[in-house]
Amino acid sequence: MKIAFAGTGYINKIHARSAQNLGLELAAVVNHKVDSMAAFAKEFGIPRQYETVEALLNDGIAEAMVVSTPNYLHAPQAIAALKAGVPVMVEKPMSMNAQEAEQMCEAAERSGALLMVAHCFRFDPDVLWLKEQRQKLGKIIRTKGIGVHTHWGPAGWFTQKEFAGGGALADMGIHALDTARFLLGDPQPITVYAKIGTYYRDFDVDDTGVIIVEWDNGAISYIESG
Ligand SMILES: NC(=O)c1ccc[n+]([C@@H]2O[C@H](COP(=O)([O-])OP(=O)(O)OC[C@H]3O[C@@H](n4cnc5c(N)ncnc54)[C@H](O)[C@@H]3O)[C@@H](O)[C@H]2O)c1
Asked: Are strands 88-90 and 25-30 parallel, antiparallel or unpaired?
């Protein structure tokens, strides 16, 4: 499979290494920052470089795309690829808001191309072990999950609402929330209480959050983000 990468930052280096380990063909990379793109292409032996996703798609060589760019680009880049029939793995948080997420799902349904969100804890050995213990545990009535950065905090676009959409909840709480939902068998929410705030840093996004979700299987999840 010929795989393309949008973004050349921290996490796409990990995805590129994983794709190499799987024996996929690392075919192309996209970034408007050409120096960063050239270094990424060199490190992973990627032959084609593009400054926009549209230019990449016009060439028609990508058979799948990994979108690991700042959050505000997730929906437009994923939708462009899906419309071109290219399956997408998009990083979390899926999008800036629910409306964008719905548009992404619609694009996937219309084209038939697969859309996956990189909720990596669904593949984490500890989480998978815990999921296996479910039978032994019996009916789960409550989960408690914490998604925080410890001993360091984010900087740059992660702390700017126009690029990130949200702060600690969108960046870290989402891992705890999705992991709880995965462990409970992917129930749907019935009611949600959520409260976010910015207390510790001069960010224009939240640095603290609490969510309580009541699921349609009767369980309740308590999530903290920071
Ligand atoms: N699943 C996880 O555990 C996990 C871990 C880290 C990051 N992430 C997510 O991955 C995404 C990227 O995070 P990161 O830590 O790699 O950030 P990063 O800042 O290190 O990388 C972002 C990359 O996107 C590039 N970029 C910016 N505008 C672009 C454009 N128009 N076209 C193409 N590339 C462009 C930047 O130059 C940079 O290379 C975020 O959504 C983040 O939440 C997920």
From this structure: unpaired
pLDDT of the residue at 135: 82
Q: What does the pLDDT read at residue 57?
A: 98
Q: Which of 56, 13, 55 is nearest to 36 (CA)?
A: 13
The mean predicted confidence, pLDDT, of the chain is 96
Pocket test residue of 69, 73, 121 for ligand 1, highest count of atoms within 8 A of CB = 69
Enter the tokens of residue 56.
């990449």
Beta strands 189-197 and 208-215 are antiparallel
The label of the residue with tokens 């060199």 reads 42
Cα gap 93→9, rounded to integer Å = 16
Q: pTM for the complete prediction?
A: 0.96
Alpha carbons 205 and 197: distance in angstroms, whole number: 8
Q: CA–CA separation, 23 vs 219, rounded Å?
A: 41
Question: Is the pLDDT confidence value at 64 over 90?
Answer: yes
Q: What is the pLDDT of residues 131-158, one digit of tens each?
A: 999 889 999 999 999 999 988 888 999 9
What torsion, rounded to 10 degrees, do the Cα atoms 123, 127, 132, 138 define?
A: -140
Using alpha carbons only, what angle is made at residue 95 by residues 11 and 172, rounded to the nearest 5 degrees? Answer: 55
Q: How many residues does the chain have?
A: 226
Ligand 1 neighbour 119 (Cβ under 6 A)? no
| Residue with CA at minimum distance from ligand 1 atom 18 | 9
Backbone CA torsion sign across 216, 137, 173, 90: negative
